[in-house]
Amino acid sequence: xxxxxxxxxxxxxxxxxxxxxxxxxxxxxxxxxxxxxxxxxxxxxxxxxxxxxxxxxxxxxxxxxxxxxxxxxxxxxxxxxxxxxxxxxxxxxxxxxxxxxxxxxxxxxxxxxxxxxxxxxxxxxxxxxxxxxxxxxxxxxxxxxxxxxxxxxxxxxxxxxx
Length: 162
Known about the structure:
By secondary structure, the protein is mainly beta. The chain is built from 1 helix and 13 strands. The mean pLDDT is 77.
């Protein structure tokens, strides 16, 4: 009986700590798209650090139509002007970002201004996502595991997203 009490006293704090970390600090997800390459590849299992304030370049987990949750990278925040030219986008006429577009992706306009209370994302979907749809924001990747290779990607361990 003594060993089970000690085991319980050891495991309970670890379980509580793990739950708190999972709820407030850590996000796990599996990448379902090739659009986040070269940062992340389809099938990667990612463990990341959550942050509360989304910024341009952060990865976000959001509610979407395709699946329950989708992943995207913020290209534009409220008020940003995005000028599209083929697979590239100029953000506020200064930053040039290369997009990874699938054959099915059609850019509807050559330029747009991101609406209030929304972000413009590339990822599982390309387009505007409302602030209310965002579930979590990742500012840093702790570990990225490639299930096809059977190991973690050392070049993506402790990787800052920006």
